[in-house]
TrEMBL record:
This is DYW domain-containing protein. One of its GO terms (biological process) is RNA modification. NCBIfam families: PPR (TIGR00756). InterPro entries: DYW_dom (IPR032867), E_motif (IPR046848), PPR_At4g14850-like_plant (IPR046960), PPR_rpt (IPR002885), TPR-like_helical_dom_sf (IPR011990). It comes from Nymphaea colorata. Residues 527-619 form the DYW domain. The keyword tRNA processing does not apply. Keywords: Repeat. GO terms for molecular function: RNA binding; zinc ion binding. PPR repeats lie at residues 6-40, 108-142, 209-243, 312-346, 347-377.
Amino acid sequence: MRQPVTTFRYNAIIRNHLRTSRADQALQHYFFMRQDGLLPDNFTISSLLKLCSSLDAGMCNCKLIHAFAIRSGYQQDVFVSTGLVELYLSYGDHEAAHQLFAEIDKRDVISWTSMISGLNRNSLGLESLELFRRMVKEGVKPNQATLAGVLSACKQLMQHKLGKSIHGILIRSRLARDVVIETALVDVYAKCRNLNYAQRVFDRMSERNMVSWTIIVSAYTTEGLPQTAIQMFRQMLKEGTEALNLERLAPVLQACAEAAHLQYGREIHGRLFKIQDGEVKVKLINALIDMYVESSKLDYAFSLFRRMAVRNVVTWTTMIKGYGMHGLSEKALETFELMLESGIKPDGVTFTAVLSSCSHAGLVEEGLKQFRSMQRDYDITPNMRHFASIVDIFGRAGRLKEAYDFIRCMPIEPSEMVWTALLAACRRHKNLELGEFSAAEALRFNQHNAGIYILLSHIYADLGRWEDVSRVRLLMKKLRLKTNTACSWVEIKGKVYKFRVSDNSQPFSDELKKFLDKLLKKMEATGYMRSTSGVSHDTNEQEKMQTLCGHCEKLALAFALNFRVHEVPLRISKNLRVCEDCHEFFKFVSQTFNQEIFLKDPNRCHHFTQGSCSCGDYW
């Protein structure tokens, strides 16, 4: 027979089970406690709140515990009130959390921190920072957890200056030498595109964990520096860090793809054979398939896909995305049908890939059909990416009024992403009035998005409105907005060569420009007309032509052709969208030299053969 125990003893047992992730046993002992006729106290209620969170017990139980706390007189207990705040925020009810937080008489650093961190998790960074300012004003000293939460908000809102201020506070208070804080600082600087500071903090870290390595590698990949990302990964291996897991390898595989560094990607491929865990191996093979897709090695990707004994929704989605990127939209839709036949249920990401495939091929009605099916047949609520995809589908097809009408009828407020999709379509079809309106709507959400200003300036440039171009450029300068420098990469005989726009730093630069001049004259002799829409500066036609000659993808192609590697496909990657003139240039070269060429930009993979492109000139 069980010996009766006190509430204090039960609390200790329940807390111990929660600490060791045994929520079911914690719940069982709570029932034992009630069977023994013991009433919960403030510590029991705090444990019950953590138990609800662990078991995902639902908002109803949260409110029941809240009501019990009020009846028992424990609502003003700091542990109970903080636990209730955390639980409400975990279910996204930030209004109830705010109300409860306001009713706490004696708020300590833990209650403030719980509220700040919870708002961050609900993507309410501005409210989180405002609460932090109130906390400091009321004289409550933040701890490491508080500052980690504030740094998270800085990252979310791209608040670089505030992040540096918090960094200063951490240094002065000697709290900076903590792996969690240091990792958060690296993340803030990386997301705010200050890689110098990110690298500096990373280099000074007393201890580096999986998260910090992943952040720094991903940062260099995102910033268009994939070769540096690969170097960092190699450094990680030299330090003896175990790297065979998805979180670390995925950004490295992405870097290999973007740097056109397939040789190193294949080395990682070889490492996968050492993995025995089936679930982990599927995830990593999925990442490897994605690398081959991004590297324009669709045959390698399909070979891996075909041999997989187990495929999950990510596997299928990656192949659908790959076919769509390569202009094989019919193949993408066929793969989607095979996925459904195999019994795998699509998710929201799958439909993003399907809609993107429709957009790249001008399949407007098919895209609308899939959008309706997503909601009707699979009960998937569309997110902003889905809405933006439909706008893109209409926009690429030149149906701008329908795109605008679709936005007006959206059941939720259109986001920056949606308006930017319409702006891009306006740039493509030179619609000034709707373009200016779309830019204004997008900038309401984020006035520091350099891409919006660039798209708008291109619309002005295409229409010859150079004063407006200058006005936009001056505004960007005033806001200190940075734009990505165009870069291209090409791998030749296992070595990657990098070229920047109008790159004169290479010892062979003059030779390449002479080669391009000769080739362009040959093209013009055949009736080829240069497109200067990619030049957004008020210069004469001759200067515009010279600017086009300096486009980095042309330099990479000229360099590769000089190596006389015509027996294999050339694979060139670029960090920005390819312009119309370069697209025509690559078509001409593919026919003149009988050269197969793959050109990968952030959205599409263009496959040039015999004077034509897989995109059908629709991209």
